[in-house]
Amino acid sequence: MFGSKLEHKARDPAACDSIGYDMRPQGPAAGFVGRFFLFFVYCFFLSLCHRKLERVGLHCRTGSPSRPLHDGAQNEDKNVSLAMLWAETLVTTGVCFLLAQGYYGVRAARERMERVRQTIITLAYSFIKTTTTDSGIGHGRQELQVLIYECLALLTAYPVALLEQMRGNTCEPAITRYCQDTSRALKRLRDGDDSVVASQFYRSEPWVIRGRGHHQFATIECFFEVFALQLQLEFTRQTMRTKGPSMTSQHLIYNLRNHFENFVDLGNLDDRRTPIIRENIDMLALAGRECGIFSFLDVAPIAFLWSVHLAGWLIAVYCPVQNCDWLVAWTPEEVEDSASLEFPSLSIMMVMAVLSVLSAMLTTILSEMWKMWDPFGAGTNTHAWTLGIASEIDNMLNEFYEYDTKGLIRKHAYMDPSAYLNDMGCGAGGSSGNRAQTV
Prior knowledge:
The protein is mainly α and about 450 residues long. It has a domain at about 105-200 and about 215-295 and about 380-405. Helices cover about 60% and strands about 0% of the residues. The chain has 16 helices and no strands. The protein has helices spanning about 5-10, 30-50, 50-55, 70-130, 140-165, 175-190, 195-200, 225-235, 250-265, 275-290, 300-320, 325, 345-370, 380-395, 415-425, 435. The longest helix has about 60 residues, at about 70-130. About 35% of the residues are buried. Keywords: Membrane, Transmembrane, Transmembrane helix.
């Protein structure tokens, strides 16, 4: 009942009512209906009060007694009609041009976003499946497991931090420390320390968060997905901002490189695989910087956008006024010159609906134009991007729910075989997999 969409999603990660996994944002149906109702009320007001509006110079009736019939008035009407025609033509051209450019920007941004996603998943697989403890000087199994979880947390946090950076959010929460705490919490959860971790990090009401509420994890299956949601809440709630640009995403890449180089130096990674992983880290950093090119805070024709937007709204508002004679064309003759307010007939309401649809369509297209130029805001469902990456990492870590260890093609190289079997719940009868599913 209370709380934001992110908080409700964090409480129940499987629910898709408020936040889904489709990259396309919600359709303009709700906005169109609202604008249609607004313009219909506007047309209703013009039809109801057109006689009173004639006193201030708005002549809706063609043969109105208060309207002088001379050549000057007719020429004035022609000039206004010609000006409106040119204005509508220019606005239509501008909207079409901006929509085309915006659509190209959204498609190009989506390509970079998918490049970031694929590179993150490739790196996550490399850390999960190719690290080893066979070297005599490297990290042990227990220590390496925590470090692998920290690398996965860094990869999960990177798109969230990158997204907020491209939106101009200069908040810099201690994400690297959160990733360290998250890795230790996940290690304890997978070791079966349910009571200690659950009592320390979980609350039944996720919207009542005091201090660091980024560890409210209810299941291992959605561990990193909930972690991504909590990071987004952290960026939203923090009021402290830096004067300069945010460096959070660069800090995450920096820490990821440090962990990777330590793995290489200590022999936890095969030398034959290190060039590929190093190149993927470079590709991830480059793809993240390329995403920033298409953000709304980068180069954009702001003056042109606002000019077309304001001109379009003026046309949408003036369209019922220009055709207000349609709204009074079926007024009965006995009340045509009456000073009383007359309720519009059904025929006039049909005309109102047509004019309202035209104005609502124009303003809805203007709204879509702005969305196209903001691909990391309203142009796409960014939750599907960040949560989709986190969900893939969760699935790889949990072997895509393949709890039958005999059917696994390649086990996690950093985990002890006996601990791996215990985590998968082998030999537990009907409760097989419960340890990996629920905390």
